[in-house]
Amino acid sequence: MVPLSWYLILSAALFSVGLFGVLSRRNAVAILLGIELMLNSVNINLVAFWRYGNVMHMA
Amino acid sequence: MTGEQITFLVVAFATLGSALMVVTTRNLIHAALWLIATLFSVAVIFALLSASFLAVVQVVVYIGAIAILFIFAVMLTRKDMRDQSPQLNKNWWVGALLAALTFGGLYALLQGWSGLSRTVADIPSGFDAVAELGTELTSFTGYVLPFEVASVLLVAALVGAVYVAFNPRSGDIRK
Question: Looking at the complex, does the CB of residue A49 fall below 8 Å from at least one CB of chain B?
């Protein structure tokens, strides 16, 4: 059984990697790639909280 | 350690490794391809969280549209695709420091939270998450208004893109 913390730590690490990409890349397209990584980490957080919260209560 | 945990760890390390390749590789095309690997790993994470609809949406929208759009953008804007010049700016260590501080701060914040070791409950039988999502997106007590506003916004962006690309004098698409 995977505890909730693993998903949250993975999401935090992915967010930090994306932040590093945004802050330190020179090319504008590469900065957008970093932003995509950050958005995906947010989605992981969101889905993890849905799954570990009350699944029946989606709204 | 159960099989589920081993699967999670493998997928998590694949995600983080390919994400690190996205931000460090010099070739932009390679960065976009590593981004596809990252997005696919995130789709697997969604599947592990039994969010099947979002896993499919992740593959179709992110890999099928956004990553391909990035590859198109790189191919249309870079003169030399094999550009191997340094891609990091000279203050990259500040970015690395800030990213490490962000991760440390988030980790410390999570350690102080009581719900962290919460374990997952089984999804009740007969519960259809996709049907529930569709009902919520179309019911007036649910999210029909944000849903429609988002679609109108997308149409506006589409019309704006056509207007920007259209040259009224020659009646032709602008070169």
Answer: no
Q: How far apart are CA B138 and CA B135, in angstroms?
A: 5
Task: State the Cα–Cα distance between residues A37 and A47, nearest whole angstrom.
Answer: 16
| Domain limits for position B3 | 1-81
- What digits encode the pLDDT tens for the residues B23-69? 988 888 889 999 999 999 999 999 998 888 999 999 999 999 998 98
Please tell me if residue A38 touches chain B, with a CB cutoff of 8 Å.
no
Q: What is the pLDDT of residues B112-145, one digit of tens each?
A: 887 777 777 777 777 788 888 888 888 888 889 9
Under 8 Å between Cβ of A21 and B23: yes
In a domain, B93, yes or no: no
ipTM: 0.91
Residues A28, A51: Cα–Cα separation, whole Å: 35
Helices (H), chain B: 3-24, 28-48, 52-57, 68-77, 92-111, 129-138, 144-165
Rounded Cα gap, residues B62 and A12, in angstroms: 20
Does residue B5 sit in the same domain as residue B76? yes
Which CATH number goes with the domain that contains B24? 1.20.120.1200
User: Most A CBs within 10 Å: which of B46, B120, B123, as the mutation test of the A interface?
Assistant: B120
d(CA B150, CA B128): 25
Cβ pair B103:A6 closer than 8 A: no
A56 CB near a chain B CB, below 8 Å? yes
